Amino acid sequence: SQAGANQPILPTSTLVIQGTKLLGELTSVKFGNTLVTPSVITDKAIILPVPNGLPAGVQGVQVVQQWLMGTPPVPPPGVESNIFPLVLHPVIAHTTATSTNIKVTVSPAVMPSQRVTLLLNQVTIPAFGPPAAYSFVLPPVATSSTSLSFTIDLPATGATYFIRLSVDGAESPLDLNPGSSTFGPTVKI
Q1: In angstroms, how far is CA 136 from the centroid of its own chain?
Q2: Torsions phi, psi of 30, nearest 5?
Q3: Smaller CB count within 10 Å for the chain: N or C?
Q4: Residues 22, 46: contact at Cβ < 8 Å?
Q5: 103: closest CA among 174, 172, 163, 183?
Q6: Mean pLDDT across the chain
Q7: CB count, 10 Å around CB of 26?
């Protein structure tokens, strides 16, 4: 991520691919089966935003170099780098909650084949024992969706929880700094 080392890659992130001999006649970047033309290409770096429509989770990334041949000039299959894993983290945009249901708006959209789990961790430490933690698995979605609805069953209501989503193992970011403007996200149930 252009945001720096150890920063999560989010749908709004700008990526920096570093290496050598990255600038070719036709240089592109492959995310899974999606080929993208980068906005900035130099011999040592490729800079581009995370492509729209890329699902959360682990993605294979490759640099592809091609050259024009023949008449009329057309690119052959070209040369591909080794695959490098990229973890795209989902982002929770909005939540609403009742005692039996939590609705979450997420980016990017969840795809039908993805595993999604809602994670709740109690914000305040109770008088006796550790804070409560819960997880709820979402049944597979029929079509891609940014709006998810989880049926929940908690032993008590009135508590505030940190809320996260895990999509194919990639978790939404959580800000634990109480002085931060982005503290949380949290939900009161």
Answers
A1: 19
A2: -105, 125
A3: N
A4: yes
A5: 163
A6: 91
A7: 13
Q: How confident is the model over 95-133, as pLDDT tens digits?
A: 999 999 999 999 999 999 999 999 999 988 777 778 889
With tokens 């929770």, the residue in question is 92
Give the residue among 181, 173, 184, 186 at the shortest CA–CA distance from 13.
173
CB atoms within 10 A of CB 27: 17
Residues 6+ apart with CB under 8 A from 45: 16, 17, 18, 19, 22
Cα separation, 42 vs 29, in Å, equals: 13
User: Hey, what are 116's tokens?
Assistant: 């999604």
| pTM, rounded to two decimals | 0.88
**Pairing relation of β-strands 101-110 and 79-80?**
unpaired
CA 135 to mean position of chain CA atoms: 19
> Residue 104: which of 10, 16, 185, 1 has the closest Cα?
185
CA–CA distance, 167 with 71 (Å, rounded to integer): 47
Write out 3-31 in H/E/C secondary structure: CCCCCCECCCCEEEEECCCCCCCEEEEEE
